[in-house]
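USER:
Working in pairs, take the chain set out below, taking as long as you need, and write a paragraph about the fold.
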Amino acid sequence: EHYRDAPGFVKERLEKGIMTSRHHIVYQTFGVPEQMEAILAGSIFQEDITFDGHEYYVTKDVLTDVSGHELGHFVFLNDITLEHEMIYGSVKVFTVILLIVAAFLSALGFIVIKRKEQDINTLTSRLNAQKDKLEFFNIKLQKLFDLQKNIVVLTDGEKIKMANQALYDFLGFEDLEEFLTHYQCICDRFIENDSFFHLGKVPEGENWIKTIQGLSGEKRIVAMIDDELSTHVFSVAVNEFEESHYVIAFSDISNTMLEQVRLMRKVTHDKLTGALNREFFEKNITQIIKDVRPQKLGMIFADIDHFKQVNDVYGHNRGDEVLKQFVKTIERSIRHEDYLIRWGGEEFIILMRVNSVETLEKAIESVRLEIEKDHFEEVENITSSFGATLYQKGEQISDSIERADKALYQAKESGRNRVRII
């Protein structure tokens, strides 16, 4: 059946078949290869073999009858000599090409590397020259800084890059390295006091240098403490050195400033009690109103109950001592940023930053209780009445004063030692 249905070229090959010693039929057009025994024994399957100067690819399959009984094998040897020669030849050519390309690339790479080395050497030489110039410039700049008696720093606003010896002498540091182990910015040394510029006055996200540049000269004043814990006041001058870098000079004006403070205190404070006076109120109330925003300004009138009796019974000298102690008690009971003003006689005004009427009432009640429980020499105890109001946006300050005064009148009419708010 295989023979009958086989193509013509197969039949031709079958007709030329020969018998082997083991009765295996080999269909061929050439001699039997030496490996045939191994192929038939099953040790070679689908493998390349060499025979008679040629390369063959061996394929073997089992021949069975219709019942599945094994009759023998088909063995095909396909001549692949030409393909191998082409592959080997291509490999040789490709290898030669690779060697040539590799040699070319190596030569080219060597040339490029040499040129790069020259460029790097040239650039390094330039950088070294620039570095030497920069070091020379820094030395000259440092000497120039050190010649200044005032404190001088070079900074980007966040970190000091250079400073003169005056800064190190002022703070008690050896050099910049030691300073940077404690602080990054000289602004960290600014004292937080409303009379001077400090970081608390810098808007969020803004560099302090930009803020102080926008101030007028008389407001560019900072205070710092030296290594002996003495407070010094400085006038600040800012000059742009290069992009984002500034030379800042701090001129010590402590003596002048202290004298100004003494004169200012004399002008703005009540001579007897030390409280602020009406002149201070009239000159500063507009700015105080602006400063409290977005909170509210509480205005409180305080009056010592039956103070005339104190003068009549104990004398005016004792009355003056009561006024002094009365002021100290109130100052002890309010915050540093609040204002106590002597309005006249035994009447005082307290200006207080608050969030609501409730917080205002709570704060005044606390002051009233402190006065009530305080001991006054000879007089022993006194009380005080309080009338208060909140400043309304846009109104005349005289309207606020009138309401607070009316509230004080109500407190006295209702029995004194009271707090009333309108």
Q: What stands out?
A: The chain has a mean pLDDT of 83.
